[in-house]
Write a structure and sequence with these properties.
The protein is mainly alpha-helical and about 170 residues long. It is built from eight helices and three strands; from the N terminus they run H-E-E-E-H-H-H-H-H-H-H. The protein has a three-stranded antiparallel sheet with strand order 1-2-3. Helix 5 crosses helix 6 and helix 6 packs across helix 7. The longest helix is centred in the last third of the chain and has 40 residues. The relative contact order is 0.11.
Amino acid sequence: MTADQIIEGILGKEGGYVNNPNDKGGPTRWGITQTTARAYGYAGDMKALPRDTAKAIYLSQYWTEPKFNRIAELSPAIAQELCDTGVNMGPRVASTFLQRWLYPDLKPDGAIGNITIAALKSYLAVRGKDGEATLLKALNCSQGARYLELAEARPANEAFLYGWVKE
């Protein structure tokens, strides 16, 4: 699976414009918050954020900058999961989940670098496809636990819990 296919899949799930007063992210289109869009130079109305602009933001902030492209060289499926989680929780959170599962005895820093790449490469060499499936399950466990914590910490988030877990 290519970066373009992964990002297109996320765009398809994230959909159009949303401005739910209970969502701390504020106005959002294609899953891109207004704050993120502004940080990448988009100054227009969020309702009109072009899909291509959202795609460029995804490619930069949620694929290349966090180095999920390097993860994709070893496992496109894990890279896809990290990118999707990164969109919802931030790339550092997604990277931290991976690091915690790969080397629980070290303190994760949320940045994909040579140590994380080497750990994943080693893990996959030993565990193979079964290990990849298990790691994907583990990452989903971390994501689900985080969603539950967010809902427990802020009652307004309870309304989003079903949708977060469904995707």
